[in-house]
């Protein structure tokens, strides 16, 4: 998918009155928060009256991220029949390159994609559009209609920090297809940090450091922050590159499913999954057992499979369609995910730890972190589940906390022909260029792992291209490849790197550039040609880079970026 990223259009939507609408599009649950910045307060509200929600779940800030298609129509959220063949976890399909840990049951991404009625970005857009349109009606009830009509809408969408740039961009496109514009992205731990510090209101000093651990349904993200300034507003900076992985609570459900399959056998489990008995048992584990588990071997839970007609297995606790799960049984399900999260936390610099997100609300997870990080305070905000969407809304308020800088999680650079160096380029392919020089293909890395990236910082990647004197219009459509690398040391050549790949291909249109900007040259045969010098300009925003192109300091009008998974 090719998308224009040079201008997010936000300047065209500046308005005296505005409403900020923040959307937390989650793997298992999603929600929307909002605020009116011109009302003179930093109060952020959440949409809580969702269709299909009743009973104890009424006034819940989130709904299940479920969608079910019936031809061209679909139902969504809590209105979906829970035992139907629903689409679950479409968010994870937006980043198929995300590495899956070995402790989760093996799946087939290609098979999951084939089951969808349309491209995952369009499924995501349907869901995002549906909850936004409904939420807009709820938000409109809070203020007079005349005022709501005056307000320009400003959207913020949170994304996992560990996602690839391609996945973040795909999520952005889903939001735009859903009608959210102008929309900006914010990393989920950053949003959680903004809300947590704003909500707790305790005194912070310059130099204080803490970790935000956002443990959600699909992913776990961790970023360490240090207080850079406290007045006139709180300013934070990232201490080390963020880390994370697919250790979210959805993994617990998948491991519970695997445990039941091992208990009753694969053939019997295949039959069970088609019944209401499985839905009841799975719901019981999801809503009761994994949320109340405290890690004690003495705990026991009775998982019911009503009318499933399962064979008794007393030795393993299965009798009369009821499985007696011991504390150790549940602990085995949690174990590898807890180990993974503790490892990630241990890699971060910290003086305090905030657990947020749905999984972040687990008391068992909190106790494990406290035990592993003795002497370090572990805090669990009371509204950890809604911290991300509230923080995303706060990010657009002028006087709240601000993350001033982040740390690069990988190298970014370009590959180009450079003058051959006998020492550095020995053994690499060399070619003779039209200017008579011998050159080799080498990387220049403009951003390195761990580099401080200031908010709204602009980095210029200089290029030049040679074109024939009798060039045509098509010769003035340039395509440049921006590379990324996770190698510890940034390699000079492709042959020396283990983790190099194309981040995106940037397409620039030079047909409107005055030819006087081109440098006239002659090759070794006396034939005239032109060198075109220009800068690929990268602007660093909260969660995604934007691109433009400059010739002699003047910005070109059309630049497109095609991201690669």
Automatic annotation (TrEMBL):
Coiled coil: none annotated. Gene3D superfamilies: 3.30.420.40. Keywords: ATP-binding, Nucleotide-binding. GO terms for molecular function: ATP binding; ATP-dependent protein folding chaperone. It comes from the Eukaryota. PANTHER family: ALPHA KINASE/ELONGATION FACTOR 2 KINASE, FAMILY CHAPERONE, PUTATIVE (AFU_ORTHOLOGUE AFUA_7G08575)-RELATED. This is Actin-like ATPase domain-containing protein.
């Amino acid at each position: 998918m090719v998308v224009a990223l040079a201008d997010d259009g936000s300047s065209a939507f500046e308005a005296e009155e505005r409403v900020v609408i923040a959307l937390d599009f989650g793997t298992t649950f999603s929600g929307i928060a909002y605020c009116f910045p011109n009302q003179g307060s930093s109060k952020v509200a959440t949409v809580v009256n969702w269709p299909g929600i009743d009973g104890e779940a009424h006034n819940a800030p989130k709904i299940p991220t479920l969608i079910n298609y019936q031809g061209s129509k679909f139902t969504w959220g809590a209105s979906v029949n829970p035992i139907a063949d629903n689409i679950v976890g479409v968010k994870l399909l937006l980043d198929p390159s995300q590495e899956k840990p070995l402790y989760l049951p093996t799946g087939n991404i290609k098979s999951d994609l084939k089951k969808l009625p349309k491209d995952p970005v369009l499924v995501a857009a349907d869901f995002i559009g549906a909850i936004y349109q409904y939420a807009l009606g709820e938000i409109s009830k809070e203020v007079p209609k005349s005022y709501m009509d005056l307000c320009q809408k400003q959207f913020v969408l949170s994304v996992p920090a560990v996602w690839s740039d391609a996945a973040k961009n795909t999520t952005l496109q889903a939001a735009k297809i859903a009608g959210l514009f102008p929309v900006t992205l914010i990393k989920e731990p950053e949003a959680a940090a903004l809300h947590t510090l704003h909500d707790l209101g305790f005194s912070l000093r310059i130099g204080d450091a803490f970790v935000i651990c956002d443990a959600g349904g699909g992913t776990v993200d961790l970023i360490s922050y240090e207080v850079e300034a406290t007045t006139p507003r709180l300013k934070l900076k990232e201490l080390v590159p963020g880390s994370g992985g697919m250790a979210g609570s959805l993994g617990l459900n998948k491991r519970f499913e695997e445990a039941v399959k091992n208990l009753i056998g694969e053939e019997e489990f295949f039959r069970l999954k088609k019944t209401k008995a499985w839905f009841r048992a799975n719901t019981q584990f999801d809503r009761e057992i994994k949320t109340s588990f405290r890690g004690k071997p003495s705990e026991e839970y009775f998982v019911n499979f009503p009318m499933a007609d399962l064979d008794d297995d007393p030795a393993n606790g299965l009798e009369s369609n009821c499985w007696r799960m011991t504390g150790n049984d549940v602990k085995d399900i949690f174990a590898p995910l807890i180990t993974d999260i503790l490892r990630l936390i241990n890699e971060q610099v910290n003086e305090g730890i905030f657990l947020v997100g749905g999984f972040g609300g687990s008391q068992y997870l909190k106790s494990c972190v406290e035990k592993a990080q003795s002497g370090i305070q572990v805090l669990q905000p009371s509204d950890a589940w809604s911290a991300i969407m509230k923080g995303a809304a706060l990010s657009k308020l002028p006087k709240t906390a601000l993350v001033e800088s982040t740390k690069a999680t990988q190298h970014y650079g370009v590959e180009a022909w450079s003058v051959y160096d006998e020492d550095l380029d020995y053994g690499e392919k060399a070619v003779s260029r039209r200017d008579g020089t011998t050159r080799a293909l080498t990387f220049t890395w403009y951003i390195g792992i761990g580099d401080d990236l200031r908010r709204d910082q602009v980095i210029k990647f200089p290029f030049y291209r040679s074109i024939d004197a009798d060039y045509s219009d098509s010769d003035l459509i340039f395509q440049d490849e921006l590379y990324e690398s996770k190698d510890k040391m940034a390699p000079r050549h492709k042959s020396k790197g283990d983790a190099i790949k194309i981040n995106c291909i940037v397409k620039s249109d030079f047909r409107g550039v005055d030819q006087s900007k081109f440098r006239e040259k002659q090759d070794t045969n006396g034939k005239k040609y032109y060198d075109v010098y220009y800068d690929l300009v990268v602007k660093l925003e909260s969660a995604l880079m934007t691109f433009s192109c400059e010739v002699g300091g003047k910005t070109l009008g059309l630049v497109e970026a095609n991201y690669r998974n």
